[in-house]
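Need a sequence for this fold. Nothing fancy.
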């Protein structure tokens, strides 16, 4: 399963890249705003900076909601860097735009997906990625992981090549559960990825190994 980081923070992207397990980045307008990135020129420059840090797909979301606007914005985004994936919302115009981008060889990520039917439409339009938001489903007492499982079954039934990119991941157990049901990608906050490193028995075990090593060294000096 690929690990993407879900942020527009360059420092967090660098930190995740340094871990050696990062495969890509997803952003959205809320995440860009959180970093204080405003104005088209600054936003476009920021995407290029992200692409220069990470060797993998970087999702850049269109703001337009009409077909013509999405096409023009998406083409500009795609021209920024070969790793840009145009992120398009799950709407009627969005699905038409995905179909168009697919015909032009431009990679797409269909976002704001909350049902299996929406995921089926995205795959039929040829989306490179589909982004079901599992945390937001959990927030309304609906099982987000179950949706990933359902989409996996449907895509496997028909051999759709669209990759399932689990989004709105909130904690390390979401990552494990995504891997169990066969998500292709999990896009996560940095904290959820780094939490995977931690286990108290690893910490204790390492302390004991090092203590034993030091003790053995002291004994050989004495002897
Ligand atoms: O990738 C989509 C993601 O950013 C949404 O996450 O935590 O706002 O539901 P969240």
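Here you go.
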């Amino acid at each position: 399963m690929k690990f993407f980081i879900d942020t527009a923070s360059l420092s967090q992207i660098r930190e995740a890249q340094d871990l050696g397990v990062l495969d890509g980045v997803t952003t959205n307008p809320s995440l860009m705003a959180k970093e204080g990135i405003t104005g088209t020129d600054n936003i476009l420059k920021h995407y290029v900076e992200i692409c220069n840090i990470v060797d993998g797909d970087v999702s850049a979301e269109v703001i337009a909601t009409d077909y013509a606007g999405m096409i023009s914005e998406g083409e500009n985004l795609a021209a920024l860097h070969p790793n840009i994936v145009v992120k398009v919302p799950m709407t009627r115009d969005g699905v038409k735009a995905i179909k168009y981008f697919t015909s032009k060889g431009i990679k797409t990520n269909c976002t704001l997906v909350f049902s299996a039917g929406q995921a089926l439409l995205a795959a039929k339009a040829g989306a490179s990625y589909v982004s079901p938001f599992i945390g937001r489903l959990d927030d309304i007492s609906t099982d987000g992981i179950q949706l990933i499982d359902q989409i996996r079954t449907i895509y496997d039934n028909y051999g759709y090549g669209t990759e399932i990119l689990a989004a709105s991941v909130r904690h390390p157990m979401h990552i494990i559960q995504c891997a169990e049901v066969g998500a292709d990608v999990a896009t996560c906050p940095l904290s959820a990825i780094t939490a995977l490193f931690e286990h108290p028995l690893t910490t204790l075990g390492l302390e004991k190994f090092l203590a034993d090593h030091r003790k053995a060294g002291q004994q050989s000096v004495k002897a």
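For context: Residues 200-222 form the longest helix (23 residues).
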